[in-house]
């Protein structure tokens, strides 16, 4: 599905706060709610096997709306548990802009989407020519220590620029609005700069300030 013509105009939508999928990255998901089991079943029957991940946004009065931009992934792995749940992996295909959410009798949400603003997503992996890996990993080490996280540092040092930055954007414990900012970053360079800013902010106690 590397061309615009290969992508459907309507896709199932999975609103999940804090979950981030990026093009050419992978996101593991645990599916257990009946409506999303139905969504997965229908996705697996389709040619594209796409599910659109998107951040829900609260509205005044306790309601919810969808963010304007999400990212669709193809179901590339799934395993059923003994109690009927599924562990699946989505492989990021392309971001999309929501045109409109569709009604109907489906138990899950669907939306008409526009893929055209994100042609870069369907091309080769991006590079970050100005990436200072040594200083980035030093910052990451301080951030992981502050958050009580651990990782395989050998694999991080060897990972390609895009894989490293996108994987960390997905895995770091950031607020939903921060995840959305990483998703909407127009280039890999912007995403890396945004991620650095967010880690520096957290190390300065920004997370505590935000909750006050």
UniProtKB/TrEMBL annotation:
Record-linked SUPFAM superfamilies: PUA domain-like (SSF88697)
Domain Lon N-terminal: 11-203
Pfam family, one: LON_substr_bdg
InterPro entries associated with the record: Lon_prtase_N, Lon_prtase_N_sf, PUA-like_sf
Top-level taxon of the source organism: Bacteria
Protein name: LON peptidase substrate-binding domain-containing protein
Species in which this protein is naturally found: Albidovulum sediminis
């Amino acid at each position: 599905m590397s061309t615009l013509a290969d992508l459907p105009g309507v896709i199932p939508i999975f609103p999940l706060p804090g979950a981030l999928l990026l093009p050419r990255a992978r996101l593991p998901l645990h599916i257990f709610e009946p409506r999303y089991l139905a969504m997965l079943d229908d996705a697996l029957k389709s040619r594209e096997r796409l599910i659109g991940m998107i951040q829900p946004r609260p509205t005044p009065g306790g309601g919810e709306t969808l963010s304007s931009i999400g990212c669709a992934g193809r179901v590339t792995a799934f395993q059923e548990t003994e109690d009927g749940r599924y562990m699946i992996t989505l492989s990021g295909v392309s971001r999309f802009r929501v045109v409109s959410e569709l009604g109907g009798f489906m138990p899950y949400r669907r939306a008409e989407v526009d893929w055209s603003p994100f042609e870069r997503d369907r091309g080769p992996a991006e590079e970050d020519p100005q990436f200072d890996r040594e200083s980035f990993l030093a910052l990451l080490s301080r951030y992981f220590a502050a958050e009580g996280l651990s990782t395989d540092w050998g694999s991080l040092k060897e990972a390609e620029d895009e894989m490293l930055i996108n994987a960390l954007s997905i895995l770091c414990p950031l607020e939903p609005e921060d995840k959305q900012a990483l998703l909407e970053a127009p280039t890999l360079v912007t995403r890396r700069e945004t991620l650095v800013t967010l880690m520096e902010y957290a190390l300065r106690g920004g997370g505590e300030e935000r909750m006050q």
